[in-house]
Design a protein that fits this description.
348 residues, alpha+beta, 10-stranded mixed beta sheet, two-stranded antiparallel ribbon, 14 strands, globular
Length: 348
């Protein structure tokens, strides 16, 4: 079967045309229907820029906006990169001067004055903020209880490093990772100030419109700024476009939407999370098994096991959306679906 091109910019063809085993891909549908993977809602696969597999496992279908939660953070990183490409920011830009009217900030410390854009992009600032620790002062659940989320973040005290914790100077890449939604919220406020434009408008003009993305569902913080730390609704096909954009080094339809230098900087490690996973500029970096090989990937990830995975060596982009919110092992289920059905279908 020859390829066809839809009105949303995707060329479509058979898995065989892309060197993939169709039977292995189609076997994912009954496995999901059996409940093996919980509430997976869609699976899309593109190889070498061609859409070769598309499945929806709920009643919403292709036109539905998918809330992939914290996958939004990676999109925020894309927007920061575009602002840097435009000369409006650098990774070394200090953060606090953008918010002087919100001061004075609690817990003043010279180290807070030195927090940069890069510190927030790599989740390695000095702020005591850890969503993976329910006792952290900066845990996102505490942020949601107040009105000014940016001030919440900038009021936080500096982190402590007890003797059993790895200090930045001793950590790989010189940074100590701590998963912090509040820091990405600050990046959103900073973006609006640096660009002089509301985030939905800046995103539409500079990122979404060039990719032909017309439907978006932003959530907003109490003071009106778009929530850049999570919750943006996008169609699965449009999430696939964002992954393809980074596979193609920032180019979509012969247009350089994000600079190649930013794509490369974003998808190389800047902080170590654990023995298997590192972190770029709001991209997760790791490896997945494929036969006897392990394939390096960078990916967007959100609660419930939502993932947009880019595998450069295989020319592959995979979108898996999920409603496994609050389900133990949700990301493990997504990874098994990716490995057992998508990566297992690769013939070369």
């Amino acid at each position: 079967m020859g390829s066809t091109t839809g009105d949303d910019g995707w060329a479509a063809d058979s898995p065989a045309s892309a060197g993939m085993t169709a039977g292995r891909l189609t076997a994912a549908k009954p496995a999901v229907a059996e409940g093996t993977f919980g509430a997976i809602t869609s699976l899309l696969v593109a190889r070498n820029g061609v859409l070769v597999h598309e499945d929806y496992f709920d009643d919403l279908g292709v036109g539905s906006l998918r809330n992939t939660r914290s996958a939004t953070k990676t999109i925020t990183g894309m927007l920061v990169g575009i602002a840097i490409d435009l000369g409006l920011l650098t990774v070394d830009t200090p953060v606090l001067p953008f918010f002087t009217e919100k001061g004075p900030f609690a817990n003043p410390d010279p180290r807070k004055d030195e927090i940069t854009v890069e510190d927030l992009l790599t989740m390695s600032s000095i702020l005591e903020c850890d969503d993976w620790n329910e006792y952290s002062r900066g845990n996102e659940e505490r942020m949601y209880l107040i009105e000014d989320w940016v001030k919440f973040a900038l009021d936080l005290p500096p982190r402590g490093f007890p003797s059993w914790a790895t200090k930045p100077a001793a950590a790989p890449y010189g940074r100590s990772f701590s998963y912090c939604t509040a820091g990405v919220v600050v990046l959103g406020g900073l973006l609006e100030r640096a660009t002089g434009t509301r985030i939905p408008d800046f995103a539409a003009d500079r990122l979404f419109t060039p990719l032909g993305i017309e439907q978006t569902g932003w959530q907003f913080m109490p003071l009106g700024t778009a929530m850049t730390g999570g919750g943006l609704g996008l169609r699965s096909r449009d999430l696939l476009k964002l992954g393809q954009l980074y596979l193609d080094r920032g180019v979509w339809d012969d247009t350089q939407v994000v600079s190649q230098s930013w794509v490369e900087a974003s998808t190389r490690p800047h902080a170590q999370i654990d023995g298997k996973t590192s972190f770029g500029y709001l991209w997760w970096l790791g490896e997945f098994p494929s036969g006897e090989k392990r394939l390096a990937a960078h990916y967007m990830a959100g609660a419930g096991g939502n993932k947009v995975v880019v595998v450069p060596a295989a020319g592959l982009v995979v979108v898996i959306t999920s409603a496994n919110f609050g389900v133990r092992g949700a990301h493990d289920m997504t990874d098994r679906l990716l490995v057992d059905f998508v990566l297992a279908s690769l013939e070369d």
